[in-house]
Every structure is written in C-alpha cells, then in structure tokens.
Task: structure prediction
Amino acid sequence: MMRTRPLKVALLGCGVVGSEVARIMTTHADDLTARIGAPVELAGVAVRRPDRVREGIDPALVTTDATALVKRGDIDVVVEVIGGIEPARTLITTAFEHGASVVSANKALLAQDGAALHAAAEEHDKDLYYEAAVAGAIPLIRPLRESLAGDKINRVMGIVNGTTNFILDKMDSTGAGYQEALDEATALGYAEADPTADVEGFDAAAKAAILAGISFHTRVRLDDVYREGMTEVTAADFASAKEMGCTIKLLAICERAADGASVTARVHPAMIPLNHPLASVRGAYNAVFVESDAAGQLMFYGPGAGGSPTASAVLGDLVAVCRNRIGGATGPGESAYAALPVSPMGDVVTRYHISLDVADKPGVLAQVATVFAEHGVSIDTVRQSGKDGEASLVVVTHRASDAALTGTVEALRKLDTVRGVASIMRVEGE
Amino acid sequence: MMRTRPLKVALLGCGVVGSEVARIMTTHADDLTARIGAPVELAGVAVRRPDRVREGIDPALVTTDATALVKRGDIDVVVEVIGGIEPARTLITTAFEHGASVVSANKALLAQDGAALHAAAEEHDKDLYYEAAVAGAIPLIRPLRESLAGDKINRVMGIVNGTTNFILDKMDSTGAGYQEALDEATALGYAEADPTADVEGFDAAAKAAILAGISFHTRVRLDDVYREGMTEVTAADFASAKEMGCTIKLLAICERAADGASVTARVHPAMIPLNHPLASVRGAYNAVFVESDAAGQLMFYGPGAGGSPTASAVLGDLVAVCRNRIGGATGPGESAYAALPVSPMGDVVTRYHISLDVADKPGVLAQVATVFAEHGVSIDTVRQSGKDGEASLVVVTHRASDAALTGTVEALRKLDTVRGVASIMRVEGE
Ligand SMILES: NC(=O)c1ccc[n+]([C@@H]2O[C@H](COP(=O)([O-])OP(=O)(O)OC[C@H]3O[C@@H](n4cnc5c(N)ncnc54)[C@H](OP(=O)(O)O)[C@@H]3O)[C@@H](O)[C@H]2O)c1
Ligand SMILES: NC(=O)c1ccc[n+]([C@@H]2O[C@H](COP(=O)([O-])OP(=O)(O)OC[C@H]3O[C@@H](n4cnc5c(N)ncnc54)[C@H](OP(=O)(O)O)[C@@H]3O)[C@@H](O)[C@H]2O)c1
Result:
C-alpha cells in the first residue's frame, strides 16, 4: 500500500516535546515512511517566538499564525504540543473542521474538554489520539482502549507524575523533608519554578480523569476527581510508613465500586506495601497498575515525561493516525456508553493510618476506640507510645468509607484528650 | 455506527483458553456489543471430543469438523486456540481463503510460520492478530507494533515463561534445587506433566522469535533464536548470584547490535542485578523490559498464562478485528521492511560469571588469567577460595563476545590445573 503523496503534518508548538517530535520525524524519516506506507512531511511549525533558533527546523516552515496553518486545508495531521486550554482547544477544533486528524499531548485540555473534542472529531470523521497525555512514553491509553477492550477494568492505580515521585523517593531514601527534596528536584530540573500543578496533584488529577473515562467507558470530568497534594507529607509520615512495611506514593486511583454500579477517581498520597510493584518505582519514573476481571493484575512502567519519551508516544499516535488516513478509516473514538455515575470521595472505601497526639493518661485509648466504633470504623491495630506527659496513638483501620473516617476524625478532634491529629494517610494496594 | 447484523465468530478449540473466551463472550456480551458497534455471536465451536460437557456452550454449536466450520463462508472472525502446528495452520489459511479474519494465541505456529500466515492474511486483505501468543494477558504485541511505531526499539528483554519463573523464584527464595522446585510447580499446576517445552526454553524461544520480528521489523525464524534451558541451574548458582547482588532468571533477549546493522535473539538463564525491574518478578508472572531510542526504558508486567488472562488478550484482539471489519479496514500487518541480518550467538556481547574448580596451588590464577587475556576476554573481578587441596575460582568478565568466551572456556578445560568448569552464566541488565 505504498503511495507517493506525502502526508502533511502541522506541528503546533516546538518546545520540549515539539522539538523532539520534529527531530525524530527528520532522523527516522525512512522508518516512518516504511511503517506508515507513505512519507510524512513537516508542513509547518507554529510557535510563539518565531526568531528563536530551532536546530534542524527549516525557518521557512516556522509561523506564529497557528490558525492559518490549521486552516490550510492540505494538512493531514495536526500535532498539538502547545499545552494549556487556549489557543490549543480552538486550534484542535479548527483542525477537524478543515479536514485534519489530531494528535495531542495535552492532558489539561483532554481532562477538561475531552468529550467536546471527541465529539468534534467524530462529527468530522477524524481521529483524536493522545497517548502522550498520560504517563509520557508509557503505552497506556492504547492498551486500555484496545488491548483490554474485551475485558472489564476494575481499578487503575498509578504513579502518573514524575516530579512528585522524585520528591517522595528522595524523602524515602534520604529522610529529607518535603522542602529539601523539592529544592533538589528543582535544582535538577525535575520540578518547575512553580511546582503547584505537580505537588498539589492537579497534573495527576487531569490524568486520573482521562484514565477513569477510558477504563470505565464513562465521562469523568476533572471536577469529579478528588484531589489532595503531597506538600504536607512529612519525614515522620515516612517513618510511620516504614514501621508498617510501607512507603508513600502520590497515587491516582480510579475504581469501580464493589457493586459495579458507580466509579470514583482520586489523587492523594497513600501508603503502599513495600512489596507492591508500585513501591519500587524510583525517581521520576511513572507506573500504572491495572486490575481487570480477566487479565488480573497488569503493570506498565516507564518514563512519564521528558521531550524524547513524550515524543515517542506522539509519534506512535502519528503513525497510527496516518495509517488510518491512508486506509480511509478512523481508530476508536470516545467510548462513554456505560455512563456510570461518579461517586463523591465520601463513598470511597479504603484503609487509614491515623496519628494522634493525645494526653498521656489512662482511659484515652478507650475514649478514642469508642469514637471509631460509634462511626462504624473498625480498628485493625493501635500502637501507643508516650513519654513526659505527651503521648501518641497510631491507629490503622480496617476498610471504611471516607465519609465514616471524616466523621470519626471530626469527633476525635473534639475530645479533650486528643491534642491534635498529626496525620491521616490512606493505605492502598494491599 | 451501531449496526444490527451480528459478527459471527468461530471458536477453534475450547480448552483452557477457548472455554474462557466463550464464557466472556457470553457474560460480557453487552459490553462487547457497545465496544465493537455490533453484536458478536458464537457461530460454532470446534473441538476434538464432542461429547465432553462444556458449561455455558450450546451443544448445537459444537463440532469436530473444524474445516467445515471455517469454510462456512459466513464467519467474520476465526479464533484459533487449538495450539500446535497442524491442523491449526491449515485451518487459519483456510479461514482467510473463506473471508474470515483470524485471532490466534498460537506462539509455536506464529514463530514457525508467521511470515507465511501474514502473507496469506495480506493476500486476502484480512487481519491476523495474536496478542495472546506472547506473555498471555500482558499487552505487548500492540504496544510494540503500534505505540512504539514511531520509535526505534534496541532491546527487548523479558521473562516470558511463567513455569520457569515460578521454578527459579522458588529456588531463589527457598534454596531448593531444580528438581524439588519443578516438583512443586508440577504439583501446583504451574508445570505440565512433560515440562520440556518450558524448562528447555522452547516456549520462550518461540516468543523471542515473535518479539524480535516485531521489534526490529525483520523476519526472525525460530532457528535463528539461540536457546539454552534452565535445567542445569543449581542452588550453587543462586548462591553465586546472591554474592554478586543478583538473581537468576530465564530471559528472552532480542537485541540490535551496537552498529544497528544486525540483530540477535536468544533464550538462556542469566544473572540480573536485584535492583533491575525484572529481578522482582515473582512466581508465574511475566514481564518484558523494552529499551528504545526515544522512549527509553519501559516495562510491561502481568500474568503470562492462564485461561482467563489469555482470554483477555484474545478478546482485545477480537474487538479490534471486529471493529476493523465494520470499518472496512485492516490493522497493521507484518512489518519486515528492515530485513536486518540475524547474527549467530557467537556475535552476542555480554558479561559472564564463570566458576572453575581448580587445583589449590600457586600460579593457577596466573595461568587462568593468561587464557582469558589470550582470547581477548577482559576480567572484571576474580574471587579465589580454597581448602583441603580443592579450590575454586570465580571470574566475572567485562563485556566480550560469546565466541571469545567459548574459546576461552575450551582453552581453560585443557589446563591441567583446571579440574572442571562448574558453571558459566551470562550477566545481563547492568
Ligand atoms: N514536557 C514534558 O515532559 C511533557 C510530558 C507529557 C506531556 N506534555 C505535554 O506536551 C505539551 C507541550 O509541552 P512542552 O513541555 O513541550 O511545552 P513547552 O516546552 O512550553 O513548549 C510549548 C511550545 O508551544 C509554543 N506556543 C506557546 N503558545 C503558543 C501559541 N499561542 N501559538 C503557537 N505556539 C505556541 C511555544 O512557542 P515558543 O517555542 O516560541 O515559546 C513552544 O514551542 C503540553 O500539553 C504538556 O502538558 C509534556
Ligand atoms: N493455557 C494458557 O495459559 C495459554 C497461554 C497463552 C497462550 N496459549 C495458547 O493457546 C492455545 C490453546 O491453549 P490451551 O491451553 O487452551 O489448550 P488446551 O486446553 O489443550 O485446549 C485445546 C483445545 O483444542 C481442541 N482441539 C485439539 N485438537 C483439535 C482438532 N484437531 N480440531 C479441533 N479442536 C481441537 C481441544 O478439544 P477437546 O476440548 O475436545 O480436547 C481443546 O478444546 C495454544 O496455542 C497455547 O499455546 C495458552
């Protein structure tokens, strides 16, 4: 099926990811031609600063008018690696209107407007692919949408943000505090100057929304994702985790309820056992653990970010979209037929590790235990330690709903004998 | 694109895998319909023993005449889960001739006759999918062929046989010998009555041939794969591995040569460092580590066998093939355009761990070291230990070709002072 007319690709954005996409398109041109069945040609590159020197890019291709580029009408595939909501969103819909298919790495946009973008793609019978939007180089969207298409996914639990994993891994291995580990991540280029999107879990929440949508064939909006950052994880939390044979990871967790009738999606730090495959994911690596009815437990591991890894995922999509175009077909679009309700965080059921600062006097444990019992939260283990009138209680619960746990903690705070709730950490992966 | 005419599926084989395929097709019928865009209907089930009770299967569908079933002409997809070369091969080509696409889990057949089967599929413009043939439930073929289609794969190194991983894991964790661990694997159903295909590496070699072919866009025949079983791995080897901070795994390794101009594929036991992601793959699990130019290091992990996990992979393919049929398209076929030469084992470059039984007298080390030097094999470390006139030398080399190592060992055996070569083990993943 080799044909000679090249497929024309418009590259929107030529930064960390875009420059690598352009580079590989040039250096691997022969391979891409063989795999696609036709040559691919870079037809234009839209950027903000046209005068920047861009190695390997023909200056004649560079434009600041991205809109004109996607409206040209002869573009086969638009690769959107600008990021952010606008102008990316309008450019993508304009691309569909003008006959192009789209490959994007834009998790923020996909999480916020995935449904509308998919609808636009479908209306114009075009492809929208975005493997790079979740977990960088790791093939994940395609395995979930296609390889597991005959299976029923019950749980997706992943480390989907490299910056926070780097920080937590540092804290775990060196005993450093959060700020110290963040400073090192910044110095090494693993954290941005403003790390909010990463450390507050916004980036992971966008990915959780995308993953939950695909896994459960249900639209999951960004607002549906419970989100808690990892800025309050302390060295003391790591010490507690170690005592339990655990480490702490920032996890994105998408779950089907036990009765199958609803789903949840959340991002928060959690303790996981050291023998869980996710526990040994080091540095800025990402990994996603998937549980399904038939396949059982799967894990996908690799670099979650970086120009060249992300470009690998973009190019895999580019090849697929080009092949679809040549074959006159489109790949799988949005699948939201299940339309399951997304339950609030209160309905999530898991285990908890709670550290309390309490008065060091008789009867405190009984008081505390009563509060747990009254809220229907069953205690697995309690550890008391105390000296000099100060004492601490570490409670690990059995599985209970987040709502019940929240009620328990509120009641505990009201006890005279409880001086403070030092930390509450969910325990996952057991 | 919902249409009402159901797609007709012929199931060839209804054993461990086939019965699970049939079960999921029934229990998940609604999901499959939604994901495919049309209902799928089990149109016939070919078996050897028609009178066996098969739960959930309409006896009217059961036949012993698989040939007539694939010749019916109204079959959309043939799912081949009989196994072995014949009649599977003829049934698959007959299926293509009569208008069906094919999903198969048959690694032995794909490794031996993949090129001919792909050619038959292409001739009739049909799909041939076989995700289940390598590493069971783990999405691997699709990520390699599609997600990494824009990247350049340099190395695929995997644990692709669950039986042998179970045995080696047992030996590692309990100190058991090979036979004892094999007996336990057999008792627990992880090893077949005749374990030859697993323990001698035939099963892994078939998978290595398939993986190398896909990864390097080059036909790799089963005969091209160097194969060494794991029946001679001893408790002493595990002790040596531990001393080096390693464990032992049976690995399938497909590599592009450093100059990119040729490839190799091989299966053999090897030491790998404990901190390598493959080292912590326990029990009967499989995992495949992939290194590529742009993506870097990826790993795919999950159950490598079992009826239900394997059925998950078969059904993912079934959904894809059905969708292709409805869309009037076919998925990616064989990609062998690179046609790189497959080099013999002698060209493989790696490190080696060699245990020698030697005479306990002065000058032995110098003699041995001279032999290594004469063959151009550079020594990394040597450890001598001895008592009562018996001594042993453990040599770990730098990277050297297999040919150079073989020459070295031959020469060592001729030395009077070398009483025996207790073991030679490759060291990978550093
Ligand atoms: N970096 C990663 O590791 C990674 C990983 C996964 C996904 N992603 C996603 O990939 C996308 C791109 O990320 P990145 O790291 O490559 O970003 P980046 O380095 O900031 O590059 C953004 C590019 O977009 C261009 N641009 C910005 N506004 C524009 C506009 N209005 N019109 C035309 N061009 C415009 C910029 O032009 P100038 O060059 O002139 O500034 C720059 O070339 C984002 O969606 C991100 O979430 C990134
Ligand atoms: N089992 C696994 O975990 C696994 C994992 C990955 C891949 N695979 C692959 O999947 C395939 C099937 O494996 P399996 O474990 O399911 O094998 P199995 O349990 O032995 O089942 C084989 C089935 O094929 C039928 N059969 C045998 N010869 C036949 C013939 N001439 N005509 C029609 N039907 C015939 C048998 O009929 P009866 O029922 O009447 O005996 C049986 O139903 C093999 O290629 C295997 O390599 C298996």
